[in-house]
Amino acid sequence: MSNWLPDRINNRLLNVVLLRKCGNLNKQSMKLTLKIWRQAGPESKGKMVTYPVDGIDGDMSFLEMMDILNEGLINNGEVPVEFDHDCREGICGSCNMMINGQPHGPQRLTTTCQLHMRKFNDGDSITIEPWRAAAFPVIKDLIVDRTAFDRIQQAGAYVSVNTSGNTQDANAIPIEKAKADEAFHSATCIGCGACVAACKNASAMLFTSAKISQFALLPQGEVEASDRVQNMVRQMDLEGFGNCTNTGACMIECPKGIKLENIARMNSEYLKAEIAG
User: pLDDT of 147-189, one tens digit each?
Assistant: First the structure.
């Protein structure tokens, strides 16, 4: 989260201090140079600002390293770097940072919060930027507005059910294991936006197709399949995302490994819906 909550910060910093004092004393701490995008607000002009940071342990997470930086900035009376975070467990998709030109950094299938500083070396220079996409405008520093994803999901990423008390148990419907597994894998998309940041066209088709596939593969999603794919694709286009040109960077950079097959499935579902009228 972007708001600075003192009790939460103190707990984070206490963990970092304990790590530094109780860890292996033979470990060499790192000195790093951080080049971070600073932007005061959506309408402000941003720029890269360089910060030295010292005493970084390889067992720290990337966000803990950012906490150390902000601790120093606050102590010096400077404005801390704003960045989004919540669970710090690779689940919520909030910690969206472009690290040295790669969404979430150099380790595949890993979110920024799960990236550890052992992936970097003493003396490294690290460039940290927000997602770059017209549909993801910068709010402040490294925080971008990803509510476009929310609107795409609201357009159809759900199953309408009768909740009057006569709802059929989903487990009563036989589903092939292969399809159930595929639907589950599609549903692991955390909506972080790395696919958009990695794409040269800023396309959201991997995200949108994953949210469509998790329903299209199951019998519960068949009833609203046509409306779902048409409405979600329409909303995706309205948000200003680019189109897919099959580069595949989205799948490579996705921290959950969402597959390109989802895009093919979405295109197939969309074509069927358009033909059917």
Answer: 999 999 999 999 987 777 777 777 888 999 999 999 999 999 9
What is the domain count for the chain?
2
Does residue 76 surpass a pLDDT of 90?
A: yes
Domain extent for 271: 146-160+174-276
In a domain, 1, yes or no: no
> Do 265 and 156 fall into the same domain?
yes
Residue 167 placed within a domain: no
Q: Is 153 in the same domain as 200? A: yes
Mean per-residue pLDDT, 105-116: 98
The candidate with the shortest Cα–Cα distance to 92, out of 204, 226, 197, 193, is 193
- Cβ atoms 209, 265 nearer than 8 A: yes
- Same domain? For 46 and 131 the reply is yes
Report long-range pairs for 215-220 (Cβ below 8 Å, ≥24 apart). 215/157, 215/158, 215/159, 215/183, 216/265, 216/266, 216/269, 217/179, 217/180, 217/182, 217/183, 217/186, 217/265, 218/175, 218/179, 218/180, 218/183, 219/173, 219/175, 220/159, 220/170, 220/173
What's 181's domain CATH number? 1.10.1060.10
Q: What is the pLDDT of residues 8-59, one digit of tens each?
A: 556 666 665 555 555 544 568 999 999 999 999 999 999 999 999 999 999 9
**Type of residue found at 125:** S
Question: Looking at residue 16, what is its pLDDT?
Answer: 58
Its pTM surpasses 0.85? yes
